[in-house]
Amino acid sequence: MIEYENLHRLNKPFREEFLHAFNHMLEEGQFILGNQVTMFEQEFAAYCGARHCVGVGNGLDALTLALRSFSFKEGSEVIVPSNTYIATILAIINSGLKPILVEPDISTYNLDPRLLEKAISPKCVAMVAVHLYGKCCPMDEILGIAGKHRLKVIEDCAHAHGATLHGKAAGTYGDLGAFSFYPTKNLGALGDGGCLLIKDEDLNVRIRSLRNYGSSEKNVHTIAGYNSRLDEIQAGFLRIKLKTLNALNDKRRLLASIYQKNLNPRFIKPSVDEHTADVHYVFNVRHPKRDQLKKHLAAMGIETQVHYPIPPHRQQALKGLFGSATFPISEEIHATTLSLPISPIHSEEEIMRVIEGMNVFN
Ligand SMILES: Cc1ncc(COP(=O)(O)O)c(C=O)c1O
After folding, report:
1. Average pLDDT of 24-51?
2. Does residue 137 share a domain with residue 99?
3. Best residue for ligand 1 mutational test, from 58, 154, 181, 182 (most atoms within 8 Å of Cβ)
4. Ligand 1 binding pocket mutation candidate from 63, 78, 179, 180 (most atoms within 8 A of CB)
5. What distance in Å separates the CA atoms of residue 47 and residue 55, rounded to the nearest whole number?
6. Domain-located, residue 1
7. Same structural domain for residues 214 and 298?
8. Ligand 1 centre and the CA of 159: distance in Å?
9. pTM of this structure
10. How confident is the model at residue 362 (pLDDT cuts 50, 70, 90)?
11. Domain containing 335: what range?
């Protein structure tokens, strides 16, 4: 059996260090916004080359606090790709804003800059660029258009810990970079977690306050905030895993290169771009008979996933939000995409077995 992911195996190499850190944290007795969170924030900011990092409860909260931090007028519009995970869209809705779905580029699955200007109305205040599957969006074009229209840019980096474009890290291009540390992510905690990378000093102060009941000073509340703090114990675990993030991403890259080299060209593989260093949170292929292919692999003991089976505009929760607009590119991706095993736990031999299983499918 080749599992899609196995969190027990993924975390086992860190067991001794985790236990040691946990004992230390128990001794320290600081369980909310203590030294571990402070140090993780400094270390992750340094790793990404960012000015500030603020740890929050999860990736959805990171996006929500990012949008809230600008105090946009209620009902303002925010551009977001039509093929993202629903969290990106929920953050917009939960902030009292209106999501404007824009179709992705079918070859990269990321926002298509050629379609952006058409989607910008006078009510538009921001764009969320999602670095889907671990490949950076074309940020130069996106920032150029955003600058022309005075739009804020938030990067959704839930799939892109350590991914770069022109050598610069995901999350450091826009005004804010939002990360999730959900356990399966490239940098995954042992529970929920998230953070924001921030350029502007005032936004840094505001978001630190927003995550902590709108308070910068004990019992003084200047804004109506949230309780969304990165957990101290998760921060301690994340500090340990951050030291190996480059190695974990390199392993994913090695496995991706084996797929790229050996998979039959009948499968549409991820695009390769010399300017981006992708981190392959997902390695997807597209095939018109996706469901049959998934069943064929399952019968051979190979587990796969679909990111994502239902496009956001077809989700019951978002019904009625997008009027009569259609999203054929997003529909096509959701109907044909299949995610193959690509965890650092997988051996090269296992990936070759997946490839053999794939290549005999017809
Ligand atoms: C693209 C994207 N954005 C945001 C999130 C939300 O992250 P979290 O589950 O930590 O809230 C996810 C979660 O998988 C995601 O895939």
Report:
1. 98
2. yes
3. 182
4. 180
5. 15
6. no
7. no
8. 8
9. 0.98
10. confident
11. 245-359
